[in-house]
Design a protein that fits this description.
Blueprint (H helix, E strand, L loop, with lengths): L1 H20 L6 H24 L14 H32 L7 H26 L6 H16 L6 H17 L5 H25 L1
């Protein structure tokens, strides 16, 4: 009887430590919806990049004009904003349901550690865009986003780490298939987000 009480006390202490050091209100469902937004965005981008152009089967002969670039940036911006708003709203609802704070020391650490690799990659990609080196944008967005997930994973749900590693690998693989960058982007940000988001939802949210 005493051993059981001792084990229960240890489990409670561990739970309290996790709550104080990790942001556990991250919604898995927001990952699923972010993946759906990404797939819709990839479909719209596909119609702009590939369908309207007469290109070969290797997808390497692509010319983008100013109007098409503006449309692509608008799609990417819309996907990012929708994903962020969805993540904030659903995580806030989850925190409220569990009587937890949405904004505390653990969420601040999560945001900082997530933002550093992401901001670094963002500035790097902007420099490539300025130099009109578009071919590495898709791989780099996957790699830097994956690094951000891995870096922030110690401050939230453990599944984020595996999502990050998967995205890094997909990004590196796409470097050897540059003409198919959009397809790898859809696989990483779309399919992987849906899979990991669903797994996290059924494991942590239900």
């Amino acid at each position: 009887m005493e051993n059981k009480k001792y084990i229960d006390d240890l489990a409670e202490i561990k739970n309290l430590m996790n709550k104080s050091s990790r942001f556990l209100s991250l919604s898995g469902l927001s990952g699923v919806l972010a993946g759906i937004y990404a797939l819709i965005g990839a479909y719209l981008a596909y119609n702009i990049i590939y369908v309207t152009q007469n290109i070969g089967d290797d997808y390497t002969t692509i010319v983008l004009y100013e109007l098409e670039m503006i449309q692509l940036f608008a799609i990417a911006f819309g996907v990012v904003i929708l994903s962020i708003l969805t993540g904030i709203i659903l995580s806030w609802k989850k925190a409220k349901k569990n009587n937890e704070k949405m904004w505390d020391a653990s969420s601040k650490r999560l945001l900082i550690n997530f933002a550093i690799p992401l901001a670094t990659g963002g500035f790097f990609i902007l420099a490539l865009i300025e130099k009109e080196s578009f071919v590495f944008i898709a791989p780099l967005t996957l790699v830097f986003y994956g690094l951000a997930c891995v870096n922030a994973s110690k401050y939230t749900l453990g599944g984020i780490r595996y999502l990050g590693i998967t995205l890094i690998l997909i990004g590196l693989l796409s470097v050897w298939n540059l003409g198919f960058g959009l397809f790898f982007w859809a696989l990483g940000f779309g399919v992987c987000h849906i899979i990991y988001g669903a797994w996290m939802h059924f494991k942590y949210d239900r």
